[in-house]
Amino acid sequence: MTDKKFRKGDNVEWQSHGTTVTGTVEREITSDTEAAGRTVRASKDEPQYQVRSDKTGADAVHKPSALRSHRG
Please, what is the end-to-end C-alpha distance for the chain in angstroms? Predict the structure, then answer.
């Protein structure tokens, strides 16, 4: 379980192909589902977050450990 929690609308950043990407949390995923074009494995104890890139508008899904709060 992780102690990082994000909410819809939070500004975050993550690494993608060696580049820092900024975006917004779209939703917390707490059960297995389809998101951002793939099957996502998640639970209440191990959530994942669907995020939208500010630059491209593309959606991605990340574990909380991959995300950092962004003050932009």
Answer: 28
Backbone angles phi, psi at 66, to 5 degrees: -90, -10
Q: Which residues of the chain have pLDDT under 70?
A: 1-3, 72
Q: What is the pTM of this model?
A: 0.91
Kindly provide the residue ranges of all beta strands, DSSP E only, lying in the chain, ordered along the sequence.
Answer: 11-16, 19-29, 33-35, 38-40, 48-53, 59-62, 68-69
SS3 helix, strand, coil % of the chain, rounded to 5? 5, 50, 45
Token readout for 36 is 């951002």
Residue whose token pair is 């707490």: 30
